[in-house]
């Protein structure tokens, strides 16, 4: 059993210990000490990192885990240490302080949700960027989120003492804890935020709520077990706000506007782009009308029909489809074989209603030779040819072969 020094003092950043042994698998090895200040992953909080000094070595502690009552210190560099070797442990202070701010912040926030709305926290997750709690509730409004954030920050400002207490299960029941642990243990470790929250917890915590710095609530989302609330505390909150500000500043400068006007600017731009799309569509329709009339005027009649064959290098599928529709609308005796090579190559075949040909079948025949996919009805078909070289000559030959003109 490893003695947990962090149970009694979260601010113990250095300690002396004796090597008890080591365990290793194919990939890495872990050191076991008689006592440790390193926190192993558990209860939502992630592990500490740091160093272990032994003889002439400074060993990096890359991960800390718990196996029953033993704490395993996974080392970044493998060095065999004899049982009984005296070592000196150093905790990565910045990381530990961050974890204390997040974890104590979580206790305050969870208690605030209980006090205001009787919403219990069912799980806590500490990520690399942000933390989250899952609340047992069917609904969560923006007003409730803001109220919980305000109360939690009041408790931070009040700088209430945070004490560690050890009690029996029986005493714990009488104290009325926010949350009793599911495992039956003889002795419970409690985190007592004076006059505000009392919870069983094995984590590392601040000494006074003021050390949390601040609590910033961010995204909320519906999850299976209730509502998830993302939050950041202390220096993380400052770093997050800094990043948000930088993003917003960049967006504002792109719009040449003030920060707070960005949503308004986005709405305006969306509206402008919708209008310009509409006007472009109108212009294309007018252009297709004019082009269709010109094509019909310059195409000679043969066998009572006009066969229009064109390849467009600078028009896309949308336009040649529009053009095909206008051609068959303007003339009762036209067959159009159109191709576009701007963007993905496209073919559109169309004939006036009542003509005897089958555009769908003709498209299949063309694609059998060109490669690609496509199809359609008797009067209109489209496809994407696999080959674009000599497309117009190919279509002319296809028209002659099929007896169109
Ligand atoms: Zn906790």
Number of strands: 20
What compounds are bound to the protein?
zinc ion
Q: How many angstroms does the end-to-end distance come to?
A: 94 Å
| Major sheet size, sense and barrel closure | 6 strands, antiparallel, barrel
Radius of gyration computed on alpha carbons: 36 Å
Low-confidence parts lasting 5 or more residues at pLDDT below 50? none
Instruction: Give average pLDDT, whole number.
Output: 93
- What series of H and E elements makes up the topology? EEEEEEEEHEEHEHEEEEHHEHEEHEEH
CATH architecture verdict of the largest domain: 2-Layer Sandwich
| Class derived from helix and strand content | alpha+beta
Please report the number of helical segments: 8
| Number of separate domains | 3
CATH class wording of the largest domain: Alpha Beta
CATH level 3 topology of the largest domain: Threonyl-tRNA Synthetase, Chain A, domain 2
Q: How would you name the CATH homologous superfamily of the largest domain?
A: Threonyl-trna Synthetase, Chain A, domain 2
Strand content: 25-35%
